[in-house]
Amino acid sequence: MRILLTRAIPSAIAVKGLFVQLYRAFFSLVVMFAASTQSAPAQVRLGAQGAEDGPNRMQPWLVPSPDPDTAAHAVLFRPEGAGPFRLALIAHASTQNELRRAQMPQPEYRALAAWLVARGFAVLVPQRPGHGATGGSYLEDQGGCDEADYSRSGRATAASIASALNYMRGQAFIRPDGAVVVGHSAGGWGALALGNPPGVSAIIAFAPGRGGHANDVPDQVCAPHMLIASAAEFGQHARVPVTWLVAANDTYFPPTLSKQLADAFRSGGDKVDFRVLPASASEGHRLAETEAGIGIAETELERALKLATKPDGKR
């Protein structure tokens, strides 16, 4: 009996030691799993995020961005029916002010979107990284006023536009050709930097540029000579017809500067139809955001859509 007890005691100690080892291993796995879930980005489901609402079937979407960790929040408008529809992508304005970007509401451009839907377009308005609900890193930072890098910021905006554009062109209800990119301010600047994107037949740019209202002063632009140089650079690679619109009372990129930018862009050999529109409310730079502004621009918008044709001449 004594022999049996002495043999049993080491066995119990061994079992206890094994249990402790297993517990420590399990605890380590739990810690590793928790760390990985904190460091790894959450998987998101791109596409529609809710039901359609309203006469233009307004619907929240998530679309890709150049940042693999950040999906861009967007709103989609479209006509009745199953399509396929031509796509119009509206690229919003921006600001160097971090607080203003963080507080930016989801851009909708409802009047402009409704105008395009009435002409058979599905309209996507994505919010780029570094803005509002989309969050993430601000990819299109232009840097300081005196040494602003407008080429880099424009290309970064263009990359965000292209990510959303290419994703939507793969949707069953969207035609892969005949797309129109409509850009406003910094969004228009990014549209000019797109070059020759596949499936895009026209670009409409409302007062494109960067660095306007330098230090919040109207009619002041950071390093305008660098802005002009970047416009010429973008024009060298652009082949899509561009309609360039600016209101007479735009204090961010006044008509005189806007014409210099358009002329520089045109020097690269691209087709540019530059138009100065009548004054819009108290600040012409917001023309693209209001129903009255779209009414002012309607004739030129119609003209721009006539340029947005396929090579065989069909709409």
Task: Write structural notes for this entry.
The chain is of the alpha/beta class and 315 residues long. The chain folds into 2 domains: 1-40; 47-307, 3-Layer(aba) Sandwich (Rossmann fold). The chain is 38% helix and 16% strand. The chain has 8 helices and 9 strands. It has helices at residues 2-39, 98-102, 110-117, 150-169, 186-192, 224-237, 255-266, 291-307, and strands at 47-48, 59-63, 72-77, 86-91, 121-126, 179-184, 200-206, 242-247, 272-277. Helix 6 runs parallel beside helix 7 (255-266).
- Average residue-wise pLDDT: 88
- State the low-pLDDT regions, or none: 1-16, 25-41, 310-315
Highest CATH level, the class of the largest domain: Alpha Beta
The total beta strand count reads 9
Write the layout of secondary structure elements.
Elements: H1 2-39, E1 47-48, E2 59-63, E3 72-77, E4 86-91, H2 98-102, H3 110-117, E5 121-126, H4 150-169, E6 179-184, H5 186-192, E7 200-206, H6 224-237, E8 242-247, H7 255-266, E9 272-277, H8 291-307
Parallel strand pairs: 4-5, 4-6, 6-7, 7-8, 8-9
Antiparallel strand pairs: 1-2, 2-3, 3-5
Helix pairs in contact: 4-5, 6-7
Q: Keyphrases for this structure?
A:
alpha/beta; 38% helix; 8 helices; 2 domains; 9-stranded mixed sheet; single chain; 315 residues; disordered C terminus; 9 strands; Rossmann fold; 16% strand; disordered N terminus
Short description:
The chain is α/β, with parallel strands linked by helices and 315 residues long. The protein has eight helices and nine strands.
